[in-house]
């Protein structure tokens, strides 16, 4: 949850500062929608520019990797609308069919082996309809897989929710709620399972201490390899998804 934002420019890469009620430390993120963002805790009073300067090389590399996606976002919603959708988690590749604009709100449904988008012809509205469609698909399959893994390893999450976070694949709250990003549907099953096992492990150890990593390795012997792959998996997510 964000409660503040400021734009700062200078010789450093352009960035925004966002104040997060949940953040416990300062971190940098780069997304196609927002570019470079410095996320800071609510009561933080440090120098955001100094943080960017310290990590300038990483920031410029991350901005370069996302340049194409950021250009598509800058071009507007019509440039983001996809011709097809590949849901790697369930092994589906679906063409996207856009019907002529019609009455009623934009909507996207799966029909006859395709994603069919109809209703309001505004590109922004149709983009949002596709994102809602992806969220519905995620609701249909991701919680079930998490529950299967939880039962297999003796975990009991209090709740499972689907999120549309822009910089997190998943999270686990202190109350036992596990959040899963809808974009996980576009990743390979092995990476999705790895992310789910990571969040399930947080039900027992909420931090990232050595105890947590010891537990995680018992659940996922390839946890370190999967962590590295997930760090770079965001570039596989097409810009229309909104991550």
Explain what you see.
The chain is 39% helix and 24% strand. The chain is built from 8 helices and 11 strands. The strands form 3 sheets. A 4-stranded mixed sheet has the order 1-2-4-3, with helices on one face. The protein has a 4-stranded mixed sheet with strand order 5-6-8-7. It starts with a strand and ends in a 10-residue tail after the last helix. Residues 1-9 have low confidence and may be disordered.
Structural descriptors:
243 residues; 8 helices; four-stranded mixed beta sheet; alpha/beta; single chain; 2 domains; 39% helix; Zincin-like; globular
Question: Average pLDDT across residues?
Answer: 90
CATH architecture of the largest domain: 2-Layer Sandwich
- Described by the principal axes of the CA atoms, the overall outline is globular
- CATH topology group of the largest domain: Zincin-like
Outline the secondary-structure elements:
Blueprint: E1 2-8, E2 15-20, E3 27-31, E4 35-41, H1 48-54, H2 56-65, H3 67-75, H4 77-80, E5 84-87, E6 92-98, E7 107-111, E8 114-118, H5 123-153, E9 159-163, E10 170-172, E11 177-181, H6 189-201, H7 210-219, H8 223-233
Parallel strand pairs: 2-4, 6-8, 9-11
Antiparallel strand pairs: 1-2, 3-4, 5-6, 7-8, 10-11
Helix pairs in contact: 5-6, 6-8
